[in-house]
Specification:
The structure is a single chain. The protein has strands at 9-13, 26-30, 38-40, 44-46, 50-55, 62-66, 77-78, 83-85, 89-96, 106-112, 118-120, 124-126, 130-135, 142-146, 157-158, 163-165, 169-176, 186-192. By secondary structure, the protein is an all-beta fold. The strands form 5 sheets. A 5-stranded mixed beta sheet has the order 4-10-9-6-7, with no helix packed on it. The protein starts with 8 loop residues before the first strand and ends with a strand.
Length: 193
């Protein structure tokens, strides 16, 4: 008859039958472990703060987590509701339950990064001067740009309005915002014929 093993258990069994020698003792240890926690939304690169929930498929398990990259222990912060991730963070979580082995550690790296700037009109060849605008989907981001082909830095020219391009130029732009990683560099080459 089958039975349920709900905690880590060692089972010893021996067979008996009249007229036969008793069997040897068979020993099996059933090691049960908490399920590894799962993050929603999953770790990744985002341009806005995320509200991260942590779940575990082991009923009654306690989830504990860290946001500084250290390994969670039974004395780490108890998960009780969504965690707001508003800057680049390494989130680690572990599930615990009496009678079960601790879960594997779930590691989630949430990178908060400005969206890459977009040029309008797009790069290309044009027969006359162009008025180029640069936008960024990250609200409140500062766009900085260069016209000499160098990578924009936090001290490059701040974009404040349309750039008049009347000769062949390559514009490079990057978005910056406190608390977020800077965007990837956007590059647009304008050839004016």
């Amino acid at each position: 008859t089958p039975w349920t093993v709900a905690t880590t258990t060692t089972v010893r069994a021996k067979a008996f039958r009249t007229g036969f020698t008793d069997s040897n003792v068979a020993v099996s240890t059933f090691t049960l472990q908490c399920a590894t926690p799962v993050y929603t939304p999953p770790a990744g690169i985002y341009s806005i703060a995320q509200s991260v929930t942590i779940t575990c498929d082991t009923p009654g398990a306690t989830i504990r987590y860290t946001t500084n990259g250290s390994e969670p222990t039974k004395s780490s912060t108890l998960y009780s509701g969504a965690i707001t991730v508003s800057s680049t963070t390494t989130l680690k979580a572990k599930a615990f339950k009496t009678g079960l082995l601790d879960s594997a550690t779930a590691v989630g790296v949430y990178q908060l990064k400005c969206a890459t700037p977009v040029f309008n009109p797009v790069a290309g060849s044009y027969s006359g001067a162009q008025s180029v605008t640069i936008t960024c989907e990250t609200s409140g981001a500062t766009i900085r740009y260069t016209l000499d082909g160098t990578e924009p830095t936090a001290s490059s020219t701040v974009y404040t309005g349309a750039i008049s391009v009347s000769t062949t130029k390559t514009i490079k732009a990057r978005a910056f915002k406190t608390g977020l990683d800077s965007s990837d560099v956007a590059t647009a080459a304008y050839v004016i014929n």
